[in-house]
Amino acid sequence: MPRVSQDHLDARRRQILDGARACFARFGYEGATVRRLEEATGLSRGAIFHHFRDKESLFLALAEDDALRMAEVVAEQGLVQVMRDLLAEPGPSDAEHPADWLGTRLEVSRRLRTDPEFRARWAERSRQLTDATRQRLERQREAGNLRDDVDVDVLTSFLELVLEGLVSHLAMGLPADDLEPVLDLVEESVRRHRRVG
């Protein structure tokens, strides 16, 4: 029997995660039944659970994948860019709709409130985003671009709270087309202001 290449396994895993993201976003964790996951991924139950032990493991892998992508954006462009990406209208070339990411993020928030076991498992993963934000802010401070009258940990918490507020705003279906100036203000509030004259 021929061995399956690692590239094929990675592509199949990506296919499952992408389909599952859309399914969890549309139906929530409880509503994302195995049948719906099969439809969303185009794969059988056996194929899905060959890669992931169970639905919980699949959801956690998906949430970790999203957190890792966010941490990469934060490391390069900052947490405000993650927020801007949430507001951006996806174009035809976008592989992933921000609303799908938002659905996963909302489900993570709900499970953090209601599931102590999930909260314990997730705590370790959520540190990635916090660490990436803190490191980015420290680099900005070293470059002289970040205000120096507020501790980096306080600025990190501030930006994370703004992100959570934006996620809640979007989750409630409130209009988001006028929030770019708000994000400009958030970004400006952490910058170092040089006195003129």
UniProtKB/TrEMBL annotation:
<feature type="domain" description="HTH tetR-type">
    <location>
        <begin position="10"/>
        <end position="70"/>
    </location>
</feature>
<dbReference type="InterPro" id="IPR023772">
    <property type="entry name" value="DNA-bd_HTH_TetR-type_CS"/>
</dbReference>
<feature type="DNA-binding region" description="H-T-H motif">
    <location>
        <begin position="33"/>
        <end position="52"/>
    </location>
</feature>
<dbReference type="Pfam" id="PF00440">
    <property type="entry name" value="TetR_N"/>
</dbReference>
<protein>
    <submittedName>
        <fullName>TetR/AcrR family transcriptional regulator</fullName>
    </submittedName>
</protein>
<dbReference type="InterPro" id="IPR036271">
    <property type="entry name" value="Tet_transcr_reg_TetR-rel_C_sf"/>
</dbReference>
<keyword id="KW-0238">DNA-binding</keyword>
<dbReference type="InterPro" id="IPR001647">
    <property type="entry name" value="HTH_TetR"/>
</dbReference>
<dbReference type="InterPro" id="IPR009057">
    <property type="entry name" value="Homeodomain-like_sf"/>
</dbReference>
<dbReference type="InterPro" id="IPR050109">
    <property type="entry name" value="HTH-type_TetR-like_transc_reg"/>
</dbReference>
